[in-house]
Request: fold
Amino acid sequence: AKEAGRARMTLYDPAMDTDRAQRNALELDLRMAIESGDLTLAYQPLVDAATHEMNGVEALVRWNRPGHGPVSPEVFIPIAETSGLIESLGLFVLRKACETAKQWPELKISVNVSPGQFRNPAFTDYVRYVLKQTEIEASRVTLEITEGYMIQNPQRTRQSIERLKSLGVKVALDDFGSGFSSIGYLRQFGFDRIKIDRSLVTDITTDSRQREMLQATVALARALDIPVTAEGIETEEQAIALRLFGCDCLQGYFFGKPMVADQINDLLQERREA
Ligand code: C2E
Ligand code: CA
Ligand code: CA
Ligand code: CA
Reply:
């Protein structure tokens, strides 16, 4: 059946033309959005697992596509990757996030880095450049990297992480446990932090096998002395369990959804007045 499917792909299929046309249109709009600065950032609180106090935010890119409405980064980031737009998109996100976080001295700022950026040998240079330009303290910045690329290029990954760390920024392994995790590499890569994927968190209060999986994953990171953030926390029960299992930092709708910078300002203002 697989062979037949492949053979069919080579025949003319009008639906494929439509797909391609739609993708091209999306790519064109995305290019314009990047050039005209129409992308925005949302910020989601990161909280201390013990006190639930916000001590950082993760920057998440947002695109409101004209005539279409919001498009998920899970849709347009992969397109940016394959169309050569990821570099300018990534530069925009990093610069904007650092600029904005400057006004929040009490917070750390996490920024997602896609494999396409990370793979670029000039990436460290542009991180250095943005740090200098925005004058943010490097130690407040965490770059979140997903594991996909590293497994294929362990040697280069290690070098890239070393170079980034020499700038003073922190490097976190994002979405840990979501795919093919190579535990063996974890320590040698020198990650400052691991972020456990939401898929591992969702059922921990209802499914004992899920809970054990999660516990084992956190225990492993802790055995390597790597602090752990858990993402996707939606209930208080999850928050309590994750703290108990050893996560020191939590993130999820239970604490706060991604929000505009002004709302983070308001939260900080309230706290200063309290
Ligand atoms: P991620 O880095 O794992 O980010 C967390 C995602 O989970 C965000 O989705 C966030 O809104 C969502 N989330 C947070 N808490 C909860 C929760 O309690 N429940 C549920 N159901 N979801 C929660 P978002 O913003 O749609 O981003 C999706 C992915 O797109 C991100 O996953 C990240 O991989 C990528 N992404 C987002 N912004 C950027 C960016 O600026 N650059 C790059 N390269 N990738 C980005
Ligand atoms: Ca992330
Ligand atoms: Ca994640
Ligand atoms: Ca994710």
User: Anything to note?
Assistant: The beta strands are 39-48, 54-65, 69-71, 108-113, 141-146, 170-176, 193-196, 228-230, 249-250. The mean pLDDT is 91. Residues 174-175, 195, 197, 231 surround calcium ion (ligand 3) (CB under 6 Å).
